[in-house]
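Lab channel / #folding
Pinned by the channel admin:
"Please post every new chain as: sequence first, then the structure tokens as a reply. Keep commentary short and put observations after the output so the thread stays searchable."

First post following the new format, from NK:
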Amino acid sequence: MPNYRNLNLKTFISAIDPLLVEEYFVNSVPQNQLIPYLRTTGMNYNYVKDLMARLEDEQLKGKIGEELRQMRDLGKKAMDILVRVTTANNIPLDGDETPQQLAMKLFLKHSQAFEHAWTLYCYYKSTTQVHEYCLPCNTINMEADNIQAFASEIRDFFVKQAKGDNCVVKEFEEPNETALMIIHGSYIKTVARWVADEVVIDTYRPAYEDVVLYDRTRSVLKIKASRRDRDQYCNSFGRCILSIAEPEISEKNNVYTLRPLQDGTFSWDGNEKISSIAVLEIHLKMAGATDPVIIVKSPDVGRTFKEDFNNLGFSSGEITYVKFRFTIEDDGRSEPVIFVVNPPAVSDLTRMSHYNIISSYLKENGVLLV
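Reply from TO:
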């Protein structure tokens, strides 16, 4: 069965109206490369399988495989994002269509909405670490000139890093959130490959997708990118979009703190929606000439401190990292939610279910600062 970067072609194509599949391939494949078929009757899995097998243009085949994988990922893993984007763009939803069909429909008929959905997917469903910064401002300038200024600063930065001058910035607006997708190059790589009986050396520049989100209600900038790129995004966004002349990251920009666990003000009792709270892992930075860090892991670190380590507790050092387990009561079911808080800027909580319940509790208890 054909598999394009873990895409199960049969499962994916079979979930979509053959007429929509036909529209996609007619738009994607040159007429002279299509296998003859009866127009307006649609394309089923067998047709698509044979077509992909016969395509000789490897670049075109790779492009199609990547587009189908994006549609598959959105349909399989991000129905919440598809609904959010279609609602934001006033696109009618058909209650009978599958998530895969909705993703392909957006790709074909609402390309801007599809790109917005993919940007949100890259942020919320990625395993890459996300950093958050509190950046309050008086005005948010998302005009074309501001976006161009941001893109220009970013492009110059990548050029100086020898990552090429290819840089595309795409902007997507919602009432409470601005999203930017930054597509850029990286360092040139080489690969050896066979052409007939000869080894040929190819060079290429990989492309990366970074995401910047600005939460207008909390004045929080969220960035999914590498460390060096992240600092540049933060500075450029502050200057070009938020009109902060000299963006400066300091304690006032912190989004998370674990001090309430150290000073004993954090409540472990939960509430009517949170039935239990436990720490599964903690990092304690201890006083000492060598800056030692003690890492404790257990099903319940609090209980471990009480029963196994009499001289160690939450107040024994500076807490720099915690892995929480919150048990949420939802419609008669208990659902554990495991997430990390790594002050001042890192947590994967924003990608978790029941975010609103947990974030509200953390804010009440001083862990979430904004």
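NK: The two ends are 49 Å apart (CA to CA).
TO: also worth noting, DSSP finds twelve helices and twelve strands in the chain.
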